From TrEMBL:
The keyword Transmembrane helix applies. Residues 380-402 have a biased composition (Basic and acidic residues). Residues 380-448 are annotated as: Disordered. It comes from Paramicrobacterium chengjingii. This is DUF998 domain-containing protein. Residues 420-440 have a biased composition (Pro residues). InterPro entries: DUF998. The chain crosses the membrane at residues 24-50, 62-88, 109-133, 145-166, 178-199, 215-235, 256-274, 280-300, 312-331, 343-365. Keywords: Membrane, Transmembrane, Transmembrane helix. Pfam families: DUF998. Residues 403-416 have a biased composition (Acidic residues). It comes from the Bacteria.
Length: 448
């Protein structure tokens, strides 16, 4: 008897189980990071408050502590450590393996920038939250025990969320956080400016007063520029993957677009590094250079990014027309104020970047689905049993082949792991006569 039975593949492979286990490890590590940050923050708060009741939020003056000041300081220090460790520990997760191929200096720079940006976003969110809470509870002071516990809770939650945020980072999530960071940061700088009529001049004047709101405004621009520079790594990886999948036609698209992103990041950081009160000429060079580089990127995108969907190029054309029209209205007849022109330029820039990376992510997901559907489906193989019966009734061998096909279909991991049921064979009684031999068709019954 000859048989060949193919066992079905398991639904959950070993690599999938390891990936799920790593996801659990990330949650556990984030929880540990949050608890550790909370313990350190409560000790710092007890020492800073010194047994005195403190307000929720107050002006930043050294020696006059508040819950907001202690919490933001703790989030800046402990959040940076938690985000850096989380980003380093997650480099072997699915979708993050490409970071293992980066050179050491580039990986360290990427990790530092990602940690700083996420920490800045966490500190900004903490400050805004506690500032709003103080407006809800005006003239309220809290005892030192409750204030210390509040600082521990806020810092622990921030460290926990930062650890998880950097562990599952991709191009789309990074662009969303960059857009959120720049938008919330600019609105905060506008709301806290010491000049209530700053809008009569330009946005850049927010960083020219030399006080804390101006310093925070310039710091937001610098961090945003560094983030755009680091963002070039993710864009370069996605474009290379699309070129390997024969979606993007030209191989030089990845380095060309990434270089332009790096140049835009340098120009954006330069706007914050050189405010208008330091050098008007240098500040304008960085600002005009940012608009020019962005315009070049949109102009070459139909050629460099050939293979992208038509709606992307139509949206790019609309953005270019809007930016060109705003530039003409400002420099030409002067119908557009400088503040409005800068707001339009910033909005078009970050909206186009967000749209661009979402199209890249959608095309990568589509290519992955097409590749999965293109794989051949393995049908269950049948098993053939051949039984040979020889009879020697008249000196002639008689062979009868009996073919029995057995479908080997077992779906699911439970069916694959469970032992297959054995066939039940009814034993024959001993008094049953043997089966008579089959007649020979060549035997006519006549004998010489």
């Amino acid at each position: 008897m000859m048989s060949a039975v193919r066992r079905p593949a398991r639904a959950a492979s070993a690599s999938t189980r390891r990936e799920a286990q790593r996801g659990i490890y990330v949650e556990v590590e984030a929880l540990i990071a949050g608890l550790a940050a909370a313990l350190i923050a409560v000790v710092f708060a007890v020492i800073a408050f010194g047994g005195m009741s403190v307000p929720i939020w107050t002006d930043w003056e050294w020696g006059h502590w508040s819950i907001g000041m202690v919490s933001v300081s703790a989030v800046v220090v402990l959040g940076t450590v938690a985000a850096g460790i989380g980003y380093w520990r997650s480099r072997r997760l699915r979708g993050q393996e490409w970071r293992l191929e980066l050179p050491s200096w580039k990986f360290m720079l990427d990790a530092v920038v990602v940690a700083i940006v996420h920490t800045a976003l966490g500190a900004l969110a903490t400050a805004v939250l506690l500032f709003v809470v103080q407006l809800a509870f005006r003239r309220l002071t809290i005892d030192p025990v409750s204030a210390s516990i509040g600082c521990a809770v806020v810092t622990g939650l921030a460290a926990y969320m930062l650890y998880l945020a950097v562990s599952r980072l991709n191009t789309v999530s990074l662009s969303q956080r960059m857009f959120l960071f720049v938008g919330v940061g600019l609105l905060t700088a506008m709301a806290t400016s010491t000049d209530p009529v700053w809008w009569r001049y330009q946005i850049s004047v927010l960083g020219a007063y030399g006080n804390r709101p101006s310093i925070s405004f310039n710091a937001i621009l610098i961090v945003a520029g560094i983030l755009v520079t680091t963002f070039a790594l993710y864009v370069d990886r996605d474009i290379r993957n699309l070129h390997a999948a024969r979606v993007i036609r030209y191989r030089l698209a990845a380095p060309m677009v990434s270089i332009l992103f790096i140049a835009m990041g340098v120009a954006l950081a330069g706007i914050g590094l050189v405010p208008v009160n330091v050098s008007v000429m240098a500040h304008n060079v960085f600002a005009i250079g940012l608009s020019a580089i962005f315009g070049i990127l949109m102009l070459i995108s139909p050629i460099a990014l050939r293979g992208m969907p038509l709606p992307f190029f139509l949206a790019t054309l609309g953005s270019l027309v809007l930016l060109s029209g705003a530039t003409w209205l400002f420099y030409g007849p002067g119908l557009l104020p400088l503040t409005n022109y800068e707001l339009i330029a910033f909005g078009v820039l970050f909206a186009w970047i967000t749209m661009f990376v979402r199209f890249l992510a959608a095309m990568l997901a589509t290519r992955g689905a097409d590749a999965a559907l293109a794989q051949p489906v393995r049908e269950p193989r049948a098993t053939t049993e051949t039984v040979r019966v020889d009879h020697d009734a008249s000196g002639t061998d008689v062979r009868a082949d009996v073919d029995a096909e057995v479908d080997a279909a077992a779906e699911g991991e439970a069916d694959a792991e469970s032992p297959s049921p054995q066939p039940h064979i009814m034993p024959l009684p001993g008094d049953v006569p043997p089966r008579p031999p089959l007649p020979n068709p060549h035997d006519t019954g006549l004998r010489r």
